[in-house]
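To illustrate the input format used throughout this study, we show a single complete record. The first block contains the structure-token representation of the backbone; no residue identities are included at this stage. The design step must infer an amino acid for every position from geometry alone.
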């Protein structure tokens, strides 16, 4: 597979180059140059094919030319000691549970695969790297877990002070070792901008081998397509009338699903569900894309006002609004509606859902009311216990912490506070992490 920048169709990079540089030199995002037709590959998978086998097959189909089949299989084996699960939530609504990995959120899939493939290439070349990543909550902990203890890799996680949940903060500030947490006095959009600016800063890049682990990194995006395929193999004849509903913030998750669809995954389409940060649903409705400052909500991992993957998503539809709107329906939930949905779902099914998942379920229910012949698979993006405060205020009950989360809560927080500027970030990097 060759990759091309979203801003320059004539550029070309290998998977290795793309994952180690993160952002393309022109500031665009890497995406596959060709659209492979994998419909035969999908056809050959059965409802009992294990997730790790689906991942291995797709890795071979997509980047087998660079890795070879054995490495592809080793990488997937190393990355995926955990698996998604598809369960029934309600009439015509299934949940694709993506929270059974080490940080209890879907970002574990992308981070784990990226970590395994980066380690492989760095080992092969005898190089070191410094990973810069901005988090609105869950990225940081997934990346921290996936890269913890890896040789030749330092990880710097930027998070917005006071805007991630106490548990998320514990998760990303207690790993230690090669994982460095920076507490930024600003919003997630500031963290994301600082990381983007650092990558475009020639002086910094001369001194440090910087790369990214954000959802802009194609090495995180590709593996997120694997669980859509996993779910589609479990839907039987219903596939053609099933939509995936994706609770979205930076739109990496949805973009990965659309990529799988472009490769021939046989499903009906998607629903993009957001909280009040609704620039994409607005675009789907009006054809106008107006990025703006993010607002705070109770589904904070989706508080993104200028979603960086929109550029990629649009490119997948050749920049054509109408084609995108035919394939993706949009919907938005307020915090009040989100809490009501958490409480309704708990009352009706006995299950706790995280606030992000609740935004998706509400969108799925509204969609199905208008489309009585269809089904929806809603992506359950995080374990409800990661957002215990929200669940408690909605239901009066507290979901039990899984062991991994309980362990993080008991460790001391270590973070460096910095201002929301490139200068502050450069200063830290030059002082702490230069060769
Ligand atoms: C990151 C995150 C999202 C948003 O995913 P994007 O790929 O940024 O759209 C939704 N829910 C949870 C729990 C997340 O951590």
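Output of the design step:
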């Amino acid at each position: 597979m060759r990759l091309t920048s979203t801003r320059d169709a004539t550029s070309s990079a290998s998977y290795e180059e793309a994952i180690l540089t993160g952002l393309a030199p022109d500031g665009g995002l890497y995406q596959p140059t060709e659209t492979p037709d994998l419909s035969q590959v999908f056809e050959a998978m059965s409802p009992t094919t294990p997730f790790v086998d689906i991942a291995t097959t797709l890795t071979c189909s997509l980047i087998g030319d660079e890795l070879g089949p054995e490495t592809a299989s080793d990488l997937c084996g190393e990355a995926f000691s955990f698996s998604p699960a598809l369960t029934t939530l309600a009439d015509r609504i299934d949940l694709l549970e993506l929270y059974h990995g080490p940080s209890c959120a879907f970002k574990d899939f992308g981070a784990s695969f990226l970590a395994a493939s980066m380690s492989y290439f760095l080992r092969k070349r005898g190089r070191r790297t410094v990973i810069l990543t901005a988090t609105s909550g869950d990225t940081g902990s997934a990346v921290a877990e996936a890269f913890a203890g890896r040789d030749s890799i330092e990880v710097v996680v930027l998070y917005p002070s006071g805007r991630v949940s106490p548990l998320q903060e514990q998760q990303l500030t207690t790993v230690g070792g090669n994982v460095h947490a920076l507490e930024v006095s600003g919003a997630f959009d500031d963290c994301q901008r600082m990381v983007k600016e650092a990558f475009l800063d020639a002086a910094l890049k001369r001194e440090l081998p910087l790369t990214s682990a954000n959802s802009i990194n194609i090495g995180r995006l590709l593996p997120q397509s694997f669980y859509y395929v996993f779910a589609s193999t479990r839907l039987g004849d219903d596939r053609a009338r099933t939509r995936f509903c994706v609770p979205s913030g930076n739109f990496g998750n949805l973009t990965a699903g659309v990529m799988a669809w472009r490769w021939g995954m046989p499903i009906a389409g998607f629903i993009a569900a957001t909280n009040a940060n609704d620039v994409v649903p607005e675009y789907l409705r009006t054809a106008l894309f107006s990025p703006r400052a993010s607002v705070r909500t109770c589904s904070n991992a989706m508080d993104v006002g200028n979603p960086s993957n929109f550029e990629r998503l649009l490119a997948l539809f050749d920049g054509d609004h109408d084609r995108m709107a035919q394939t993706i329906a949009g919907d938005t939930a307020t915090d009040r509606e989100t809490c009501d949905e958490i409480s309704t779902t708990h009352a009706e099914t006995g299950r706790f859902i995280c606030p992000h998942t609740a935004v998706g379920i509400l969108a799925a229910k509204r969609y199905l009311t208008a489309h009585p012949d269809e089904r929806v698979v809603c992506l359950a993006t995080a374990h409800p216990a990661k957002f215990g405060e929200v669940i408690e205020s909605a239901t009066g009950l507290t979901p039990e912490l899984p062991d991994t989360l309980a362990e993080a809560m008991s460790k001391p927080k270590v973070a460096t506070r910095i201002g929301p500027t490139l200068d502050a970030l450069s200063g830290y990097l030059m002082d702490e992490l230069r060769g």
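Structural context for interpreting the output: The chain has a mean pLDDT of 94. Residues 105, 107, 137-138, 215, 247-253, 301-302, 354, 356, 381-382 surround pyridoxal-5'-phosphate (CB under 6 Å).
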